[in-house]
Protein backbone atom coordinates (compact mmCIF):
# COMPACT_ATOMS: atom_id res chain seq x y z
CA UNK A 1 0.00 0.00 0.00
CA UNK A 2 1.38 3.37 -1.00
CA UNK A 3 0.84 6.48 1.05
CA UNK A 4 1.17 9.77 -0.73
CA UNK A 5 3.23 12.57 0.74
CA UNK A 6 0.05 14.60 1.05
CA UNK A 7 -1.57 11.92 3.24
CA UNK A 8 1.60 11.42 5.27
CA UNK A 9 1.85 15.15 5.99
CA UNK A 10 -1.81 15.17 6.98
CA UNK A 11 -1.27 12.32 9.43
CA UNK A 12 1.87 13.90 10.90
CA UNK A 13 0.12 17.25 11.22
CA UNK A 14 -2.47 15.56 13.43
CA UNK A 15 -0.24 13.18 15.43
CA UNK A 16 2.84 15.34 16.09
CA UNK A 17 1.07 18.06 18.13
CA UNK A 18 -0.65 15.38 20.22
CA UNK A 19 2.68 13.75 20.98
CA UNK A 20 4.35 17.03 21.90
CA UNK A 21 1.34 18.06 23.99
CA UNK A 22 1.39 14.84 26.00
CA UNK A 23 5.12 15.13 26.73
CA UNK A 24 4.88 18.63 28.18
CA UNK A 25 2.51 17.72 31.01
CA UNK A 26 3.77 17.49 34.56
CA UNK A 27 2.61 14.48 36.52
CA UNK A 28 0.39 14.48 39.59
CA UNK A 29 0.59 11.23 41.53
CA UNK A 30 -1.25 12.25 44.70
CA UNK A 31 -3.21 15.11 46.20
CA UNK A 32 0.05 16.45 47.69
CA UNK A 33 1.35 17.17 44.17
CA UNK A 34 -1.51 19.50 43.27
CA UNK A 35 -0.59 23.19 43.41
CA UNK A 36 -2.48 25.14 46.06
CA UNK A 37 -4.56 28.17 45.17
CA UNK A 38 -5.82 30.98 47.36
CA UNK A 39 -8.31 33.68 46.53
CA UNK A 40 -8.64 37.06 48.21
CA UNK A 41 -12.18 38.22 48.87
CA UNK A 42 -13.07 41.50 50.53
CA UNK A 43 -16.39 40.38 52.03
CA UNK A 44 -17.80 37.40 53.87
CA UNK A 45 -18.22 34.30 51.73
CA UNK A 46 -22.02 34.53 52.06
CA UNK A 47 -21.96 38.08 50.61
CA UNK A 48 -19.76 37.03 47.68
CA UNK A 49 -22.02 34.04 47.01
CA UNK A 50 -25.12 36.24 46.85
CA UNK A 51 -23.56 39.07 44.83
CA UNK A 52 -23.44 37.96 41.18
CA UNK A 53 -20.71 40.43 40.19
CA UNK A 54 -18.40 39.48 43.08
CA UNK A 55 -19.09 35.79 42.59
CA UNK A 56 -18.29 36.02 38.87
CA UNK A 57 -14.86 37.46 39.65
CA UNK A 58 -14.12 34.59 42.04
CA UNK A 59 -15.67 32.04 39.67
CA UNK A 60 -13.41 33.13 36.81
CA UNK A 61 -10.30 32.81 38.98
CA UNK A 62 -11.24 29.32 40.19
CA UNK A 63 -12.27 28.15 36.73
CA UNK A 64 -9.04 29.46 35.22
CA UNK A 65 -6.87 27.72 37.85
CA UNK A 66 -8.68 24.39 37.62
CA UNK A 67 -8.77 24.43 33.82
CA UNK A 68 -5.05 25.18 33.81
CA UNK A 69 -4.49 22.16 36.07
CA UNK A 70 -6.21 19.92 33.54
CA UNK A 71 -4.21 21.38 30.67
CA UNK A 72 -0.77 21.34 32.29
CA UNK A 73 -0.81 18.14 34.35
CA UNK A 74 -1.41 14.45 33.80
CA UNK A 75 -3.04 12.55 36.64
CA UNK A 76 -1.92 9.12 37.81
CA UNK A 77 -4.79 9.12 40.29
CA UNK A 78 -7.94 9.40 38.17
CA UNK A 79 -10.03 10.25 41.25
CA UNK A 80 -8.14 13.53 41.61
CA UNK A 81 -8.91 14.40 37.99
CA UNK A 82 -12.57 13.56 38.60
CA UNK A 83 -12.60 15.83 41.67
CA UNK A 84 -11.29 18.73 39.60
CA UNK A 85 -13.88 18.11 36.88
CA UNK A 86 -16.62 17.89 39.52
CA UNK A 87 -15.53 21.21 41.02
CA UNK A 88 -15.73 22.83 37.60
CA UNK A 89 -19.14 21.27 37.05
CA UNK A 90 -20.45 22.46 40.41
CA UNK A 91 -19.37 26.07 39.95
CA UNK A 92 -20.90 26.07 36.46
CA UNK A 93 -24.30 25.32 37.99
CA UNK A 94 -24.29 28.58 39.94
Describe the fold and architecture.
By secondary structure, the chain is mostly helical. It is 65% helix and 6% strand. It contains four helices and two strands, in the order αβααβα. It has a two-stranded parallel ribbon with strand order 1-2. α3 (52-72) packs antiparallel against α4. It starts with a helix and ends with a helix.
Summarize the structure.
The chain is mainly alpha-helical and 94 residues long.
Mean pLDDT: 80
**SS summary, helix count:** 4
Q: Strand-residue fraction?
A: 5-15%
Based on secondary structure, the structural category is: mainly alpha
End-to-end separation: 55 Å
Q: Write the element-wise H/E pattern from the N-terminal end onward.
A: HEHHEH
Tell me, briefly, the overall form: elongated
Overall radius of gyration? 20 Å
Overall structural domain count: 1
- What level of helicity do the residues show? 55-70%
Q: How many strand segments?
A: 2
Instruction: Report the major sheet.
Output: 2 strands, parallel
- Low-pLDDT residue intervals, each spanning 5 or more residues: none
Query: Which strand order spans the largest sheet, edge to edge or round the barrel?
Result: 1-2
